[in-house]
Every structure is written in structure tokens, then in C-alpha cells.
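Lecture 7 notes: from sequence to structure.

We start with a single chain of 201 residues. Read the sequence below before looking at the structure.
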Amino acid sequence: MNFLAHIYLSGDNKNVTIGNFMADGIRGKDYKKYPREIQIGILLHREIDTFTDAHPIVRKSTKRLHKNYSHYSGVIVDILYDHFLAKNWIRYSDIPLAKYVDDFYNTLENNFDVLQLRVQRMMPYMIANNWLLSYASIDGISKVLDGMNRRTNNQSKMNLAVNELEEYYSEFEHEFTIFFVELIKFSKERLKILSSQSLTN
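Now the structure, written as C-alpha cells:
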């Protein structure tokens, strides 16, 4: 899953959310350098990714893209799924998306010192361009895919995946909707378990 889903699946604890958000750049046991609640967020992120990558519905979505985008298909599906979460946000939260993402940006700013350097450098661009809110539109997703393609030196052609999004829009949305119900349940269960475990070893 991409940024918005990971943030949403963290629940209400701000430190868990921070850990989940920045987990991609934290390797191996480096998570143990952080406070307990951030550790929980990092570990939750990893479990979400493992569950997502192995899920047959997600694999169905990625298979649709594999011919044109090969191993980038999973990354693209993560981004497309964030689009459907943002677009249908009212189904999943009573807090308007604009307020929810503003609150998250405030959390990042208030905890700047604990963030990885990579995240600290990314954060101003993320906030200035309001990435999370932009996911709700196809134009916003197109810009995200353009940015991802540039990061691969235009090798991935991920910018073109907006064509598949538009062509198979209802299929992707249906797959996301079914999968996300399962992912919410999984994440709540794993968060409860992680919160009850000792993480100090």
C-alpha cells in the first residue's frame, strides 16, 4: 500500500502513524533505535506490505499491469489503491479527507526531529503539493506516477499507467474495495497484537 493507506491503517496513535509512514527507509533491526510506539508502526507497515503482496486480489490487479510495467506493477497498484481510498474516503472515515491530511502534516511538523533525513527532505514537497489530498483525482495520480517515473530515469514508464487506470477503472476499484475490507481487519488485529508484545529485545 502507499502513503495514505498506511497512515489510515495506523489507527489514532500519532507515533504509530509516524512509524508506519516512514517505515520503508528503515532496514532490518534499525527500527529498535526508535521509541516503542514508532517501532510498532514500523513493524505494522512491514506486516501490511507482506499481507498485501501475497493477497490474490492484489495479484489480480498487478497481473493486469505486468505486461507493460513488469516488476513496477506492484508499486503502481499501491498508488492506484490510494486513489480509490482517497476518492471513497467518506466510506472509511468521519473526518473529511482535507482535515485528515492537514492533521497528519501537522503531526509530521511537530515531530520533525524524529523523522528520517529522507522523510525530512521529502516532507516540504509533500505538504506544498498536498500529495495525500491529490490522490483523490486522476490528475493527481497522474502527477504521482510522473514523479515515480522520473525517479527511475524514465525507465519504468509508470507515467503511462494512468491509461490502464482509466481503461480498467471499475475493475481496479472493485478489487480495491474488496481487498481493503480484509486489510482493515488484518491491520486492526496485528496492531492489537504488536501493542501487547515486548519489542525491547
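The chain has one domain: 3-196. Keep this in mind for problem set 3.
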